[in-house]
């Protein structure tokens, strides 16, 4: 190509390039101006993502743990769980681990969400029933004494024990968060350090004496042992593979951490092949749930019955106080998406900086808090249980969800009836309202017949918990929780005031029992025998408060005698002040220790017994002042029981056994 042609071609290319640019300048400054908005947008997006990730890291930064720290430390194990879980789900940024619980690093306003825990992290009893091993080996388990099927908590504990064993054998089959949750749970050795259910029986007898708390604790121990026996009898393979210590650990985890989630929703539906029938989709879940009611007696469909129970990581880190500032809800988070999450929120008041958020486990007496969870707040905020059934063993134990009783679900048997009869007779051996004692049917046939009928009615209510037990109102009902459960909210020991309302409404149900015990032939206008005969088969029969003044007097004296007997059985006389001083010292140098907790429970019951006795006596003195001297015979109450031989006619056909209730 000639030089002239090359110049012409070059000129043509420059012209074309200029035309293609549509008039835009190709200078560097103008190019930068063109792309600057895009760079700003990209930087903005990057900063937003960085800010979001920084917040997430901040939310778990206080939960992180030093690599060199041993995972045998419970604090570190719990921190590891939160560190992993909070990368996957929502955690409030101002919470940190503190001695198996949580503490706020900044003030958290009321209404803010603390955790959002998806179903995938939970361990439900529904999961247990669906487990092939549980279905094959454990569904047939039943209690030896009563023949009753096992509870939801028992099945969840067995399933947890199996899952812990599987995680040890094959950890790669489990999600990292599930493994961290298993690691965070208290070990058997850690339970030994504080939970009374695994302590030496003689030690607990020494610490609690003959208190209601000791009876409640024995009920929990019997329940756990009975469950283990039932599962072992149903499956020797389960017995050999898991072992009693592992089951006990799992059972205490469930006992102290389980939460209610209500009836399962449609998102829990399983494949039709699981049930064995081809059904329409909307019927699958209900059919499955009804099958559990048929197979193992568990009702998961009724919200009033509680529905399902679950172990829920993170949510089980909150301690208890009646004045809680944390609440739980299992609900949908996004209306347009299926599935629900367990949401923990701040309620009632703000969570102050450096304070421990508190949940409420419900209205439980100090005795049940101690027997079930192994702790006591020690601030007088909880009600105190008094058991006045000191002559007979109750077959119904008032466990949560009625999960364990000695009495068969189908009703009583002659064995249980005879076992209780000998104790119930002792309540009838004072013959109040009569001039002297009633020797028996030979000399006093009508009086003896009334006593026999009263015994029949007492046998009918022998296991009605509220007819023999009462909750005494809290000594300090308005006290708020301490900043943290590791320090006392007050160093002083709460006490009862002289106010009869502490005993209401529970004392009315005790009075109803004492009205039956204190009935004499002249009551009901001389028709007492006929009235009791007519109502032998009436399970709802009560005498009621509309009775003669004399019967009401005798009923109050009966309750007063019960309180006095309780004080004697607890060996209170001369000991209350010494125990009070001992606890005052421990509040300062042994707060939260095992012995401190046991003494808190025992002393509260001692105080309640003394206060109850004094308040009942005060009520009698005020109401029946004119009956203190020269009272009519129907206004008399005996200090001592009548001779035992006067009641021998009531022991007819008694084949009672003893001692079969305790392990």
From TrEMBL:
PROSITE patterns assigned: SET (PS50280)
Sorted UniProt keywords: Membrane, Methyltransferase, Transferase, Transmembrane, Transmembrane helix
TM region(s), chain numbering: 31-51
GO biological process, one term: methylation
UniProt domain SET: residue ranges: 74-362
Comp. bias intervals (Basic residues): 1-11
InterPro entries, A to Z: SET_dom, SETD3_SETD6_MTase
CDD domains: SET_LSMT
GO molecular function term, any single one: protein-lysine N-methyltransferase activity
Region (Disordered): 1-25
PANTHER family: SET DOMAIN-CONTAINING PROTEIN, UNCHARACTERIZED PUTATIVE METHYLTRANSFERASE
Protein name (database record): SET methyltransferase domain containing protein
């Amino acid at each position: 190509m000639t030089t002239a042609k090359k110049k012409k071609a070059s000129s043509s290319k420059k012209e074309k390039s200029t035309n293609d640019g549509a008039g835009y300048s190709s200078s560097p400054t103008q190019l930068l101006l063109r792309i600057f908005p895009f760079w700003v947008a990209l930087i903005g997006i990057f900063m937003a993502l960085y800010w979001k990730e920084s917040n997430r890291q901040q939310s778990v930064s206080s939960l992180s743990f030093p690599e060199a720290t041993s995972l045998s430390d419970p604090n570190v194990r719990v921190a590891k769980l939160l560190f992993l879980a909070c990368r996957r789900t929502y955690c409030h940024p101002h919470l940190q681990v503190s001695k198996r619980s949580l503490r706020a690093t900044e003030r958290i306003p009321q209404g803010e969400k603390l955790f959002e825990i998806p179903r995938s992290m939970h361990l439900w009893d529904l999961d247990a029933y669906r487990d092939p091993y549980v279905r094959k080996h454990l569904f047939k388990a039943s209690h030896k004494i009563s023949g009753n099927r096992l509870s939801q908590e028992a099945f969840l504990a067995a399933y947890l024990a199996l899952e812990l064993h599987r995680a040890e054998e094959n950890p790669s089959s489990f999600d990292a968060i599930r493994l961290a949750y298993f690691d965070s749970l208290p070990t058997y050795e850690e339970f030994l350090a504080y939970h009374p259910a695994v302590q030496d029986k003689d030690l607990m007898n020494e610490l609690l004496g003959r208190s209601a708390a000791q009876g409640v604790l024995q009920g929990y121990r019997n329940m756990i042992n009975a469950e283990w026996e039932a599962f072992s009898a149903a499956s020797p393979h389960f017995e050999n593979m898991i072992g009693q210590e592992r089951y006990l650990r799992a059972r205490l985890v469930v006992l102290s951490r389980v939460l209610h989630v209500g009836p399962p929703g449609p998102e829990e539906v399983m494949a039709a092949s699981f049930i064995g029938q081809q059904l329409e989709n909307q019927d699958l879940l209900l059919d499955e749930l009804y099958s559990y009611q048929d197979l193992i007696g568990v009702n998961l469909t009724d919200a009033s019955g509680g529905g399902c129970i679950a172990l829920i990581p993170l949510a089980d880190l909150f301690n208890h106080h009646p004045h809680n500032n944390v609440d739980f809800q299992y609900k949908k988070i996004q209306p347009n998406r299926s599935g629900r999450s367990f949401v923990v929120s701040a309620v009632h008041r703000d969570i102050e900086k450096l304070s421990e958020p508190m949940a409420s486990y419900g209205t439980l007496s100090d005795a049940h808090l101690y027997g079930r969870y192994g702790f006591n707040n020690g601030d007088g905020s909880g009600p105190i249980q008094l058991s006045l059934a000191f002559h007979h063993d109750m077959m119904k134990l008032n466990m949560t969800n009625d999960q364990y009783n000695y009495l068969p679900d189908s009703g009583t048997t002659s064995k249980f009836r005879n076992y209780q009869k000998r104790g119930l007779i002792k309540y009838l051996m004072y013959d109040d309202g009569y001039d002297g004692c009633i020797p028996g049917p030979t000399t006093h046939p009508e009086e003896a017949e009334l006593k026999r009928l009263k015994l029949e009615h007492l046998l009918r209510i022998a296991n009605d918990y509220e007819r023999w037990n009462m909750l005494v109102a809290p000594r300090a009902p308005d006290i708020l929780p301490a900043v943290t459960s590791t320090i006392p909210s007050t160093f002083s020991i709460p006490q009862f005031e002289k106010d009869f309302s502490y005993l209401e409404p529970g004392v009315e149900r005790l009075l109803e029992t004492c009205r039956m015990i204190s009935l004499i032939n002249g009551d009901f206008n001389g028709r007492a025998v006929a009235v009791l005969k007519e109502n032998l088969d009436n399970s709802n029969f009560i005498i009621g408060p509309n009775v003669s003044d004399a019967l009401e007097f005798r009923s109050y004296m009966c309750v007063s005698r019960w309180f006095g007997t309780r004080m004697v059985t607890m060996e209170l006389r001369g000991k209350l002040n010494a125990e009070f001083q001992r606890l005052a010292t421990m509040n300062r140098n042994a707060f939260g220790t095992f012995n401190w907790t046991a003494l808190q429970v025992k002393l509260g019951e001692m105080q309640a017994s003394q206060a109850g006795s004094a308040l009942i006596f005060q009520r009698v003195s005020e109401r029946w002042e004119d009956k203190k001297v020269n009272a009519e015979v129907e206004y008399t109450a005996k200090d001592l029981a009548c001779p035992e031989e006067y009641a021998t006619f009531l022991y007819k056909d008694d084949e009672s056994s003893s001692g079969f209730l305790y392990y």
